[in-house]
């Protein structure tokens, strides 16, 4: 049987300030998990734009991506249902801006936590993805690529301007 494989495209922010990284604690079907501020890329946005949006929605902090950390591939099998999901993650680092007071966190986000690298490594069993540690380690090793390494064609924006089927 021919079946086209369709990975889920996500974006993630590696947000560091003073040697601590901003993570979110979120409700999942597997319980409370720690993750980078991250989520699915939406119609009509570039990966960097999606990353900035997700960071604001999940942490209430303004985030401006300045560099790409990389493109990561991971696979997850949901214990409760056996669902098999492959993720393609575009991760970015950048400038952590102001905290927008009184902004509600995205649905499912319980709280944000500023954690040291040691605390993040020690809590690996609570991570939503093994990419939480991998992206942090790449950041700490100084991995940085220009934002232009991820090109978004103008047609992507045009798609968001077109009426979408219900």
UniProtKB/TrEMBL annotation:
It is an enzyme of class 3 (hydrolase). Signal peptide: none annotated. GO terms for molecular function: nucleoside diphosphate phosphatase activity; ribonucleoside triphosphate phosphatase activity; thiamine diphosphate phosphatase activity. CDD domains: NUDIX_Hydrolase. It comes from the Bacteria. Residues 4-137 form the Nudix hydrolase domain. The keyword Magnesium applies. Gene3D superfamilies: Nucleoside Triphosphate Pyrophosphohydrolase. The keyword Magnesium applies. Its EC number is 3.6.1.-. Its cofactor is Mg(2+). Keywords: Hydrolase, Magnesium. Belongs to the Nudix hydrolase family. NudJ subfamily. Monomer. PANTHER family: NUDIX HYDROLASE 23, PHOSPHATASE NUDJ. This is Phosphatase NudJ. It comes from Ramlibacter albus. The gene is nudJ.
